[in-house]
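Hey all, quick one. A colleague (J.T.) asked me to put the flavin-adenine dinucleotide job into the tracker so the inputs and the structure tokens live in one place instead of scattered across chat threads. No bug as far as I know, just bookkeeping. Sequence used:
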Amino acid sequence: MTDALATQRWVPAESSRAPLPSSTDVLVVGGGIAGAAMAYHLAKAGVEVTLVERGELNREASGTNAGSFHLQLAIHQLSGQGAAADRERLLAEARLSLKAFAVWQELGAELDAPLDVHLTGGWMVAETPEQLRTLRDKYELEQLAGIETEVVTGDELRQRAPFLSDTVIGATYCPLEGHANPLIVAPLYALRASQHGAVIRTHTEVLGIDVTAATGARRFTVHTDAGSIDAHRVVDCAGAWAGELAAMVGLRLPVRSEGLHVNVTEPRPRLLTPMVQHIGRRLTLKQTEQNTFIIGGGWPSPAAPRPERYPTSWHSAAGSTAVAVSVVPALADVRVVRTWSGVIVFTDDFSPVVGESVRVPGFHACVSSTGFTFSPLLAHRLAEHMVAPSASRRFPERYALDRATPGTTS
Ligand SMILES: Cc1cc2nc3c(=O)[nH]c(=O)nc-3n(C[C@H](O)[C@H](O)[C@H](O)COP(=O)(O)OP(=O)(O)OC[C@H]3O[C@@H](n4cnc5c(N)ncnc54)[C@H](O)[C@@H]3O)c2cc1C
């Protein structure tokens, strides 16, 4: 690799704005972390792949998220409607998160550049006896799944996490959690994909897809605002808009989108190395390498019609920082310097949507709610499956693309 390539971090505009080819084997739609990782793994395996993105790369969820690796169980995702099934799903997802974490540990070496990854450990805190009970239940499940956590209370908690408020009565600690810089990884995946021969086209919006019934080499004709392209296979990596894309081929994905809020503060001397989240209130908090604090946790931002971006809201900026200050009081005089919003995809049943549709063969998807943590793993697995399909590489039924499409039995 030349020095220029080693330091280059972005697919050059002159190539990403070139005309769209007329055909490709695989068309990946979406230039976030999922689409860029798909393009990378497919191109590296020698597959002809074109990625189209309607805006710039990494401008939606993948570039606006809080950058946390979530390993502690999202026990609030127990719906209570099918406790045993929920439990099984949570355990399976917990085991998967260990694999996702392992991928992140190697990703800098794989992509041959630093990704600003920090494995700092993380606290999940409780302020009420009920929240502490939930933490203990979560801890039991994590032991079953093989995730290393511990419940810490009393003097030991004060000693190990002196930055926490006295209102925190207990917390679980997981040494494996951490964070990375979301501005780096997806553009780097895209750059490496293009170096392996992938065609990357930005400012190219998919407007419609014709599915041809003929059993020729080309199955889809994809119409974009930059021309049409025939593709043998399509991968839906459109994040919060994945449902709209799938609807173009008659599929209904079990997804919905929501706007979320994140804040960043001015830098301060190091106060906090591990990440902090709350079991019962909306909070994720971390101090970055630049010593700023990133405050998130799922505070909402109002929806806006495209092409407008979702606006920020005073209620969410004030609400999320108030929770942060109540849990880490030393933040009280730290100034917030910027707030922003991003659009996240949620699946109704909390499982990702990954694999190939049974109803529309050739149409694939790679969609996940905690996609910063999971997309590198899921995209790699889907790419492997597309390169060499095998029963052992099949995804679990609960990930199926067709599970919400009326008339589908799985
Ligand atoms: C505020 C916020 C905080 C988050 N925090 C975390 C976190 O801390 N940890 C974590 O693991 N996850 C987090 N997430 C979730 C994570 O960011 C997403 O799950 C992940 O980035 C999804 O990646 P993606 O590539 O699937 O989607 P995106 O990054 O949204 O990319 C989809 C792309 O598809 C393009 N597109 C859509 N439709 C079309 C079309 N018709 N034609 C062409 N292009 C199209 C869009 O322009 C977009 O660029 C957060 C999300 C948000 C919004």
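Adding what we noticed when we looked at it: The first helix runs from residue 3 to 7. Confidence is low (pLDDT under 50) at residues 1-6.
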